[in-house]
Amino acid sequence: MHTASRRLVALLLALILITPPLADASAYNGRPKLVVVIIVDQFRGDYLERYRDQFVPGGFRLFLDRGANFTECHYDYANTKTAPGHATLFTGTYTSGHGIIGNEWYDPARKKSVSSVEDVNFKLVGAKSTDTGASPRNLVASTVTDELKLATQGKARVFSVSLKDRSAILPGGRSANGAYWIEKDSGLWITSEFYAKELPAWVASFNAQKRNEKYWNLTWKDAKGNVLRTTDPGQKDIDGSALGFYDIVGRTPFSNDYHFEFVRELVVNEKVGTGPATDFLVISLSSYDILGHKIGPDSPQHAAMTLALDKQLADFFGFLGRQFGLANVWIALSSDHGIAPMSESAQAQRIPSIRLDTVDLRAQINAALAQKLGARQGGYLRGAYWPILTLNEEAFGSLKEEEAERLVGEIALTIRQEYAGFYTKAQLREGRVRPDAWGRKFLNSYSPNGGWWVMLQPPPFNNAYGNQKYKNDTDHTMPYSYDAHIPLAFFGFPFQPGTYRTKVEPIDFAVTLSSLLGINKPSHAIGRVLTEALAPERPRAAAASAEDKKADKTEKPQ
Q1: What pLDDT was estimated at residue 552?
Q2: pTM listed for this prediction
């Protein structure tokens, strides 16, 4: 082991040895000073073991060697996408509780597709973008971060940062002090009027310094010096459309460098972790997902991205140690979903896998409906938010919702006979599902949003696309293990280090943190406290020593 690595391990061990007792934990008195949650978008649960032997000390190994690592964490719903995943982690409930059914859905009132965080009442701040404003208005449950703000009457501060708007907004809930994401073309950091009428001075300064521009014209190489990608501007998508910062830089580890650079500025300028109550920082890293759709989970680029992220995490955790001392910080790791293998990779192992053109499927279903319903015109389906088919209720005339939805589902199964089944929105609304694990997954996926719809259950290892430029990609939309299996790991003094193979769910994450912080769990939470990973509680002495009292009063960040 290199000298620098030995020093880092020694530092981590020393910090753990001076860990305060569990009974001292309370959000109300700033113990811990800071909770940091790392969400790695599209990071599947098996990756920690796959790359374990290649990780450096202090990165992912912080969780594997010195943390509580749950290897069997699976989402128990069918809509494994980015927005529902982030909402589930922080509310402690599934879509049936928090309402976020997808990254976007059809809005019958506005007669258009809307994003999960779209809000016309609050404009974007910090960029010239003409995109619609954003807020957490569609989230109908409180988050662990909301409960922290309520419990401390606003003394705790909450910040959430991601390249994606939904990944920054949903974890922070309604009460976050700040949520930041990037404008996709330029890479500038922006927010919404929901949080502030103008960017804080330090964010405006960050953008004005053009920190984003140093990430252009870089070359990403693997450990052997092979060129994997470049960030040269002017790159085009396969359909000829121009790509911006999000797609070019976002598909390289350089976007994580940019992300952490911004987060460090946030910690310093907002004086995070120095207040009278525990502060909360969410970092949702998007580059893994932006690249992963294009290359799948088994390519050399995927491995290189993972190992680069490992070193970036080690650097960031070192920063936290210098700022606060790691004994004063709790750190959690998780993900919003996994990813399916590329169809070619599955086929190479003789596993059936196809890529389905949902535009073609929609046309076939429309044609079958036109024939069955007689003189009415086509257009029975508005689109596919895979695996959800959205109906045009106006086209079905006198047919009631459930009749129309069931008809669409039945026709879909005659066209795709390999499908396991379907669930109508009306059926899920009334809780009429088969009494088994699969029925529960779909019941947990229900939301009143989206108009009339049907959720299909394709067989495993099937990928779908609704645009030709995505026809060679892979995706995450299924209830199967490759999409549902995610990491869940904790580092900090309440947690007993070890590997835990008990069955857990992402809904347990917010409930566990709420309990340890001494606050109410989120309003709709249905998860449990992960007691099997908690260190034995050691009661405080009846009277603390004068030295301890003095230390509590004078302890300051370095």
Answers
A1: 43
A2: 0.92
* C-alpha–C-alpha distance, residues 528 and 505, integer Å: 9
Residues 328 and 452 placed together within one structural domain of the fold: no
Q: With respect to residue 548, please indicate whether it lies within any of the assigned structural domains.
A: no
Enumerate residues 6+ apart whose C-beta is below 8 A from 26. Answer: 278, 517, 518
Whole-number Å distance between alpha carbons of 248 and 234: 9
Residues 384 and 496 in one domain: no
Spatial contact of 497 and 68, defined as CB atoms under 8 Å apart: yes
Query: What is the extent of the structural domain holding 366?
Result: 355-470
Contacts of 137 (CB under 8 A, 6+ apart): 117, 119, 121
Note whether 433 and 427 are within 8 A (CB). yes
* Nearest-10 Cα torsion for 108, 110, 115, 121: -140
Beta strand 485-491 with 68-74 is antiparallel
Please tell me whether residues 111 and 174 are part of one structural domain: yes
Inside any domain, residue 480: no
Please list, in sequence order, all residues whose beta carbon lies within 8 angstroms of the beta carbon of residue 374, skipping any fewer than 6 positions away: none
Q: Kindly state whether residues 321 and 395 are assigned to the same domain.
A: no
The tokens describing 557, both together, are 């960040």
Mean pLDDT of each 10-residue bin along the chain, 558 residues long: 50 44 73 97 98 97 98 98 98 98 95 96 88 94 98 98 98 98 97 97 98 98 94 92 96 98 98 98 97 96 97 98 97 98 96 94 94 77 93 92 97 96 97 94 97 96 90 94 98 97 98 98 98 80 39 39
Beta strands in 430-484 (DSSP E): 453-457, 463-465
Measure the CA dihedral 87/88/93/97, to 10°.
40
Phi, psi of 368, deg, nearest 5: -65, -40
Q: Based on the domain organization, do 395 and 252 belong to the same domain?
A: no
Is the domain of 271 the same as that of 129?
A: yes
CA 500 to each of CA 63, 69, 71, 90: distance values in angstroms, whole numbers, following the listed order: 12, 6, 6, 21
The angle at the Cα of 318, spanning 313 to 323, to the nearest 5 degrees, equals: 125
